[in-house]
Amino acid sequence: MKPSRRTVLGGAAALAAASAVTVPAAAAGRLSNLAHLDFLRATVTPPAAAGHSTFGSGPIGVLWTYAEHQADGSYRRVGGGTYNPTTNTYGQGAFNADDIARAAVVYLRHWQQFRRTASLDAAQGLLRALTFLQSPNGNVVLWMQPDGTLNPSAEPVELPDPSDSGPSYWLARTAWALGEGYDVFRHTDSVFASFLRERLELAIAALERQVLVRYGDYNIVDGRRLPAWLIVNGADATSEAVLGLAAYVRAGGSTSARRALARFAEGIAKLSAGSTREWPFRALLPWAESISDWHAWGAQMPSAVAAAAAALGRPDLLPAAVGDVAGFTPLLLTAGGPDNGWLPVPIDRSQIAYGVDARLQAVLALGQHHLAAFVAAWYFGANHAGEAMYDAATGRTYDGISGDGAINRNSGAESTIHGQLSMLALDAAPDIARLSGVPSYDGLRVVKAESATGGRVVTPPSAWTGESQWSNGSYLALDGTATWTLAAAAQPRLVLPVVNVTENRTRTGWRSGSTALGTLDPRGGPQGISAAPGALRPLTLPKPLPAGATALVADGTADVDALLLVPMISSLRIGTATLLVSVDTTARTVTVPGRKAWSYDASGRLVAQGNPARAVVPPGGFTVVLG
């Protein structure tokens, strides 16, 4: 999985003194509350930096990166990297472009919904800081020290280095903020809007020069042709730029913006993979250097493609977004919620607001309000910890939940930002049911390959291959027969052995008792730009495991990482609400307690509603039952 600064929950070791900030509480009936985000804000007057300037004069608005929870329940603001008290500097910095950009989006959207003047002022201050971080080449310096000094080369090193020497996540997020900023300020301050437009065009020129110059080119990744014109080869990074470009184009943006939007959206859509019965179940993959990696953080691809389709009048783009929302997301929820990483096995089972918000924005962008209720419930206690991750009284969103349910009670900028983006979206859609209760999952399950009788357990030097990950840090080298003992299930299940597929063909036969489940004889394509030869790939057996089966046998030769077992009908129950998800080829009728059911087909279309006593789950679709 591509490294992300925000996947490490906790932040820097040193603390910076937090000044008291008086902020209003959430308005009655609203979920959104900017109090904690306001607490993270500060102002600085940066020293002169060659090539860097901004709109107007005076202090600019910035945002502390982390906030660490104190024993007395308070929070202290924290920078990134090792702190040097002598120089009052951090190895990285106190403030960063990533969070400044996304916080600006929060305040802009808050202004649009509630017309709070303080939000518009905060957005302008942050946008002035963001444009100060932009270099004359259109790229963006990531880090700024407490006194406003720029730090182009941080410790630890982040690529590109210097941070304004090439395309980056922070350039993408800058485009997001500038696009939404222009859309807002063209109605309230035409002079500032013109400045934002000028800076966004500078960013677009950088993207054209450094990224879109490869439009129409493809990289080979383990035999699959993937677009070579994505920002840092990421559909995730590119999706955040697309959100800003779509806003700009809707507001009458330039021809170059429209062209960039169309090309980026086309590239993202080409990362759609799998089918209703094949991994990754129609998800949009986030990284164009791996066909075996999906991660939740930054996975804004469906909402970005939907925004581009609307802004450009391009309905041909929508199927990729629909597949992700109607196909992959329901299975993700029934498998345990918005896990951080399926690599390709669900390994990183930590969950953070950045990933949850991406799922919520996606389902809302496609109008799936019933599904949105199950995603949003994570914030209100339907998660591994069984506790609320968002506090409407303070506006805090905790920094995440580990796979075993431990809450990180820090509340840094990223978690706060995406928590507020989610709450603003929910405030704008009051019809979404508020679900509460401890969740009960019956979905995708993982069986360790090494639990078999037979075969040989091999531990490679590193679990991470460079593009995917051995789920248990080891694998089963099968050369003969292996047998797995399984827990019985009341319904048939798809079986997806996760096999290291290389250019050398392997062959395995699979059976349960006297029932033959099929043969796998995959052969991978050329490695191309992939970091490792071969790819860990879950491969669906032609026939499902029968109901009640407790044994699975494989004969042949392969390196097996794990087995994924997926029920024909997966389910997630939260209180009196139930989500049912099908991987079957025919409709199934399920009896579920509740007062009403809504059934959606594989394309996300509502096809039936009525009595939940006989809820019909369409093939490859999902059904929501509310009590």
- Total strands: the figure is 34
Shape: globular
Main β-sheet, in a few words?
A: 8 strands, antiparallel
Helix count? 12
Q: On the 0-100 scale, what is the average pLDDT?
A: 94
**Beta-strand content:** 15-25%
CA-atom Rg in angstroms: 24 Å
Low-pLDDT segments: 1-25
- Counting helices, strands and paired strands, the structural category is alpha+beta
Q: Provide the helix percentage.
A: 25-40%
> How far do the termini sit from each other?
39 Å
Q: Could you characterize what this model shows?
A:
By secondary structure, the chain is α+β, with helices and mostly antiparallel strands. The strands form 11 sheets. Strands 20, 21, 22, 23, 24, 25, 26 and 27 form an 8-stranded antiparallel sheet that branches. The chain has a 6-stranded antiparallel sheet with strand order 19-28-29-34-31-32, with helices on one face. The protein has a 3-stranded antiparallel sheet with strand order 7-8-9. α2 runs parallel beside α4. The two termini are 39 Å apart. The relative contact order is 0.10. Mean pLDDT is 94; it is low at 1-25.
